[in-house]
Amino acid sequence: MTLRRRKTGLIVTVGLIIICLTLNMFIPIYKENGIHLGESSRSLAINRLELINSTSPSNNNQTRQIITSGPVYSIIKVIDYEKTAMDTLEPSQIIDYLLWTNQPSCQMAQYFGGRMVTSADGLSVALDGQKAICLDSAVAPIPDNCLVYSFGINHEWSFDQAMELYGCQVYAFDPSMNVSDHNRTEAIHFYQMALGDLDRDGWNEEANVPSRTLSSIYNMLKPLHGGDSIIDYLKMDIEATEWRVLPQIIQSGMMDKVRQLAVEIHLDYDESLSVYRQQAGILRSLEDYGMVRFDSKRNMFTVVDFTQVGNLAAAVDYEIAWYNSKLLRV
Asked: Which helix or strand (DSSP H or E) is residue 54 part of?
């Protein structure tokens, strides 16, 4: 038994020596190739940075840094959306713009909430309803001292519950659930109310369901959360009403009170190219204001052919998240 163990140990030792010698032969080659690729990528990035520095205003350093810190592949074929007129975008460029994540602008983006759902044919499964939140210290909600406005619930409370666990006070709104105003928990407060671009006493033929602007809702809630409070996170899933609401929020000045914004945008697959360009322009107006995009993803269950733009296959719904560069904590 002792001789057999010695032979086995000798075989194992010889095998380890052979493996080590083999790795020593290939590691220098791998390192050399890795250094070569790194230098090539770095050179492309430097060239891209020099090009933008030579053509951009000197007072736009922060945004320029965000754009140029993206993945190297974007350098090969890049659209600088800050300098591109939305009314000139081709259909595929609009989709690229919607999917532009700009992820390097936030080092710690995390998803809160969501549930597993299946497609209509039962063949696909994915997480749905989750919202991206930037947890970088300059913009992150402060646990146990944060304020969330959540528009569009449809009986799916996972995001609101996650924000409650995080330590936020959550004010949730939905006009379609046939549920009256109530406190769902000590931290989640529900209102049967729609978010709109005008104050109306009625929503979708429901005379007893009000529709209010963000500023009116904020003023209504001042006694509860304070008149100078920043909305740490504003979530919107309001079924295409966002195209009317977003311009009104900017125009009213209420965006100055929003630190992070998440919107599920909805496209009509049968609209004209001019409408898609106009909608892209609305999103661009957010970024012109100072909202910095840090996450974007498509709804994988809503891919259709956009009939008016050459049957371009793309998603109807997209989730996009921004933080407000004007409300960074120093």
From this structure: helix 2-55
pTM: 0.76
Contacts of 278 (CB under 8 A, 6+ apart): 86, 87
Sequence-distant (≥ 6) Cβ neighbours of residue 251 within 8 angstroms: none
Identity (one letter) of the amino acid at 24?
A: N
Nearest to 282 by CA among 97, 66, 18: 97
Residue type, 313: A
Residues 6+ apart with CB under 8 A from 36: none
Does residue 166 contact residue 232 with C-beta atoms inside 8 Å?
Answer: no
* Strand, coil or helix: 64: helix
Other CB atoms closer than 10 Å to residue 89's CB: what's the count?
21
Distance CA 202, CA 200 (A): 6
List beta partners, residue 109: 134
> Once rounded to an integer, what is the mean pLDDT over residues 74-85?
60
Q: What is the pLDDT of residues 260-290, one digit of tens each?
A: 999 999 999 999 999 999 999 999 999 999 9
Rounded CA-CA distance 137/148 in Å is 17
Q: What is the pLDDT of residues 113-148, one digit of tens each?
A: 998 888 666 667 878 889 999 999 999 999 999 999
Burial 209-226 (b: 16+ CB within 10 A, else e): bbbbbbebbbeebeeebe
Copy the structure tokens of residue 16.
Answer: 């380890």
pLDDT, tens only, 80-106 = 777 788 899 999 999 999 999 998 999
Residue 305: strand pairing partners: 313
